[in-house]
Amino acid sequence: MNIPVGLYSAVSRKTVRFNQIDSATGSRVKQKRVSAADGEEVPYERIVKGFELPSGDFVTISDEEMAELDPDAVRTIDIHEFVDLADIDPVFYDNAYHLVPDEQTAKPYKLLANAMEEAGKVCICHFVMRSKQYLAAVRPKDGRLLMSTMVYADEVVDHTEIGGFDLLDDISIDPKEQAMAEQLIATLDSQFDPSKHKDTYREAVLELIDRKAAGETGDALVPAPAPSSDKVIDLMAALEASVAEAKKARGRHPATGRSTTKAKAAKKAAKKSVSKTAKRARKSA
């Protein structure tokens, strides 16, 4: 079954990009390609790709040789298998794309999306984009299809190559510390809402740019205090303090865990009730 789709990026990066400027003249700084042998500028048509060997020598590859190795520029997303979403480690995901249905084949698109959603499956596929072959996962979402490109298994860094994790083998956890840590997690339990999280650094940079563009001069930024280098000695005390702070932030009593907002409202309602009763009693007297 062939289902034509349109491919649209599902992510728009908001990185603040800067140009290099000569502080003396205010003009942009341009980079030139120069030869390491004599320092002379090399014209673009003389530049070829080179792969450095362990010996320090280079193997050069021409554009024509690279073109012969390019995968066939087929315009299809070939489905190989269907798997459970939970079986895919998020470390494999890269960029995301919307798959938009074609007007003439919207029905088979919807059929595939509904069937995948009902089965709780995502499909693993391959496709070619800009002369590069990609591994990808297509998953259903609210009747639509989303595709995420993936890295290959040999591109994922194995934790055994890093070291340091063996330090965990000789550490024992006290049951009370475990219970307190679980209580901290339960206190901060919530539903994920991406709109709550902002790139505060990018917003601060853009605000600084706006102030500078408006003519502000001088050092308008207050440096943030340096983080404390003190090590936590009493883990249990730190956990208890974290739980109390989390409950306070959520509006709960640090000891009981009950909502202080509800308690205040109940107390206020009780006062109001007693006040009305006393008022009626005085009036009757």
Description:
The chain is α+β, with helices and mostly antiparallel strands and 285 residues long. Among the domains are: 5-11 and 78-154, Beta Barrel (Ku70, Chain: A, Domain 2), CATH 2.40.290.10; 173-185 and 234-267, no CATH class. The chain contains six helices and eight strands, in the order βββαββαβββαααα. It has helices spanning 63-69, 106-119, 175-187, 200-213, 235-249, 260-284; strands spanning 5-9, 49-52, 58-61, 78-84, 93-101, 121-129, 132-141, 144-150. It has a six-stranded antiparallel sheet with strand order 1-5-8-7-6-4. Strands 2-3 form a two-stranded antiparallel ribbon. A hairpin with a 5-residue loop joins strand 2 and strand 3 (58-61). Helix 3 runs parallel beside helix 5. The termini are far apart.
Question: Key terms for this structure?
Answer:
single chain, 285 residues, alpha+beta, Ku70, Chain: A, Domain 2, 6-stranded antiparallel sheet, 8 strands, 31% helix
